[in-house]
Write a structure and sequence with these properties.
Radius of gyration: 29 Å
CATH class of the largest domain: Alpha Beta
CATH superfamily of the largest domain: Glycosidases
Number of domains: 4
Oligomer: single chain
Length: about 700
């Protein structure tokens, strides 16, 4: 509650309801209350009185039209007055319906002759635009309200290079507000900038991806981590342009950087947040470190990764060039987006513009905190849904982004996810969408959220398959827990289902396209670090890591690799390294040399996957017809791909000796180890942990 000297507090909670809260020392039972404003005096009829202990709460109703753009006061018989603030009305369905805006022109529309500014705030009493010229001359312009909650002003002249922000009067005070639809800014998002899109880097290359998500090999990377290694010769370390520097070699002459990605064979790089985020100082690059899951400006690229964060064009053009070069090299770009929470719930522009609208609240009117970040975005509200849909379309149309990974997607409602998925499909059929589908709500909200339990209403969106991770790698939050690849064969039946994309007989999903298969990502212990909790046998860890990578890349579904996983990335046993700095998070290119045999093996696996259509079966019915998965007595698993592929894959997690008789017409295509014996042309004695791939001649 506000701490001021008003005799009481009053809130418009519905279109016919005002709540008045009176300190008990000021309360008189005989008082009557009136709504005064817009040349009217309106009776407030008390329907309920609630004693809160130190305060009295009155629920009142009235019969009149309230103009939300006008200032109203509640007055009692003693002529004591308090300005009426908007309360729960902003979370009513009627408010959402009346004030939803359909057009796609919020923010700034620039031309050489004039620029139009539009901002949504149905409850503001006035909105002023601060414009500051490149010569630091300040102008202030009044915006006019027209309809649907949108204020607008057109300013004549060429404003390119001007910085801007708004002064907005809401709920009794004027606030400085940044434009939530700004597409350019200076360092740390103090001001938005008016920019001329004709001066943007002109992108030339498009993604060549087919659009079938089963053809994707996803590779998660962080822009800074990828090139910040001090032992490497990247010129633009930690920046957008560093990510695509070619000709970079390790000390022994092996490929690094974008050349390495191209050589590895991945189809998509999934970039950890590249929108503007909090948690770092863009002017002091090395003073802080953050992964970036702290949304600040949704439409602005992150200045921490640019050469000059105070030049509004620098971050834009460098990101565009980075994406363009990746496309040129046959690599599509997935953007990691965070729409489940914001970094600072008080300073988020939408909250300043319409307090109480942007977030989910409990019955007591308190912000929910399911995200663990002190707020949860109310994606189901029309203007928050519009912000999300507008945003992903902007990144596709302006930056040619090829896909989206949604952070904590289970906190976003499935209507929003379905709408944006359809809009993206209408824009381009090659765009892929997937996210973290954990079911995190315990209330009835869970029925409407985009989590795995609601997979049947979001067929065209993928989910990180945490069951795959837990059964192959071991329990995430128990460092000593072993998964199948570490020799634990107790859940072998579940492992078999994982190999089939968790879709056979609809085990978890209806389609394998919904299963993002992984054992490692930016969160939690890397595979190597988890292994170190269990054993110090480096050779054993390497064999098990190769087995786990084999299972990721040779299972039905969509394979996902964490950058450096293929050369046993370590984060020095740090489980959550989101602020742990470069020393922990950097990609250590020396390990690319040390574990080059694993890298070479992964290259071959990726190539096999690309060439093997039977590893990319979509439907449960076809899986049953074309694929057999057999648990052997030794607890190894044999995957038999029938029909045109004619392939046998054996995943062996233990050193128990076993003899495998392979049909005469099959030959060994690839093995993760050389430790096997061929007793005759079709009998193999296997005694080593690893993966064995046989192909029909």
């Amino acid at each position: 509650m506000e701490k001021d000297n008003r005799p009481f507090y009053c809130y418009l909670d519905d279109f016919d309801e005002v709540t008045i809260i009176i300190p008990i020392k000021n309360y008189q039972d005989s008082n009557k209350y009136f709504l005064v404003g817009n040349d009217e005096i309106i009776n407030l009829n008390i329907s309920r009185k609630i004693n809160l202990g130190l305060e009295i709460k009155l629920i009142t109703h009235f019969d009149a039209y309230i103009d939300l753009g006008k200032t109203y006061f509640v007055e009692n018989q003693q002529k004591e007055m308090s300005e009426l603030h908007t309360g729960k009305i902003v979370r009513t369905e009627l408010f959402d319906n009346i004030y939803s805006y359909k057009k796609n022109d919020l923010g700034v529309t620039y031309s050489v002759e004039s620029s139009k500014f539009k901002i949504w705030t149905p409850i503001a009493k006035y909105v002023k635009l601060e414009l500051i010229s490149p010569e630091e001359v300040l102008e202030v312009h009044d915006l006019k309200y027209k309809s649907s909650g949108v204020w607008r002003v057109a300013v004549d002249g060429d404003l390119e290079g001007y910085k801007y922000r708004y002064r907005v009067y809401v709920n009794g005070k004027e606030s400085i507000v940044q434009d939530p639809y700004a597409i350019a800014s200076n360092a740390n998002g103090e001001y938005g900038f008016v920019v001329d899109k004709s001066k943007f880097y002109q992108m030339k290359s498009e993604s060549h991806f087919s659009g079938n998500i089963l053809d994707a090999v996803l590779y998660e990377a962080n822009v800074r981590d990828f090139t910040i290694d001090s032992s490497m010769d990247f010129k633009n370390k930690g920046k957008f342009l560093g990510f695509v520097e070619s000709g970079i070699k390790t000390k022994s002459g092996l490929s690094a950087g974008i050349d390495y990605l191209k050589e590895l064979g991945i189809t998509h790089v999934q970039l950890m947040p590249i929108f503007d985020f909090d948690g770092v100082d863009e002017n002091l690059r090395d003073s802080q470190y953050n992964w970036g899951y702290n949304p600040h400006q949704f439409f602005v690229p992150e200045g921490w990764y640019s050469k000059n964060p105070n030049d509004p064009y620098s971050r834009i053009n460098e990101l565009k060039e980075m994406i363009d070069v990746l496309h040129e090299n046959g690599i599509s770009v997935v953007m990691d987006v965070v729409f489940n929470h914001v970094f600072n719930e008080k300073t988020f522009p939408m909250e300043k513009l319409v307090p109480g609208y942007s977030y989910r609240m409990d019955r007591q009117g308190h912000l929910t905190n399911v995200s663990g970040c002190n707020n949860d975005i109310a994606s189901h509200r029309k203007m928050m849904r519009k912000l999300i849909v507008d945003n992903v379309l902007f990144w596709v149309n302006e930056y040619m982004i090829d896909g989206f990974r949604f952070d904590l997607m289970g906190l976003i409602d499935y209507e929003t996810m379905n709408e944006l998925r359809q809009e993206l499909h209408d824009t381009s059929e090659h765009i892929i969408v997937y996210g973290e589908g954990w079911n995190m709500y315990s209330s009835n909200l869970t029925d409407r959220m985009a989590h795995m339990s609601n997979k049947n209403v979001i067929y065209t969106i993928g989910f990180f398959n945490d069951k795959f991770r837990e059964t192959i790698k071991g329990a995430t939050f128990d460092p000593l827990s072993k998964g199948y690849s570490m020799g634990n064969t107790q859940e072998i039946n579940t492992v078999q289902e994982m190999l089939l994309g968790s879709a056979r007989n609809r085990f978890m999903f209806k389609y394998t396209t919904q299963s993002i298969n992984y054992v490692e990502c930016h969160d939690n212990l890397t595979y190597y670090d988890k292994s170190l909790h269990i054993t110090d046998d480096e050779e054993l860890i390497k064999k098990q890591a190769k087995l786990a990578l084999s299972m990721v890349l040779l299972s039905q579904g969509v394979p996902f690799i964490h950058s450096g996983q293929e050369f046993l990335r370590t984060k020095k046993l740090v489980e959550n390294s989101y602020i742990s700095g470069d020393e922990v998070n950097l990609i250590d290119w020396k390990r690319r040399e040390e574990y080059n045999d694993v890298v070479e093996y992964v290259k071959k696996l990726i190539e096999i996957r690309k060439q093997t259509s039977c590893l990319k079966i979509k439907s449960s019915y076809d899986l049953i017809q074309e694929t057999e998965v057999i648990a052997l007595n030794s607890k190894s698993i044999m995957l038999h791909l029938n029909t045109s592929c004619n392939m046998l894959i054996i995943f062996k997690p233990t050193t128990q000796e076993e003899t495998i008789i392979i049909p005469d017409e099959y030959e060994l295509l690839l093995s993760s180890t050389e430790s096997y014996e061929v007793e005759d042309k079709n009998t193999y004695a296997l005694s080593e942990i690893g993966t064995y791939i046989f192909k029909k001649r």
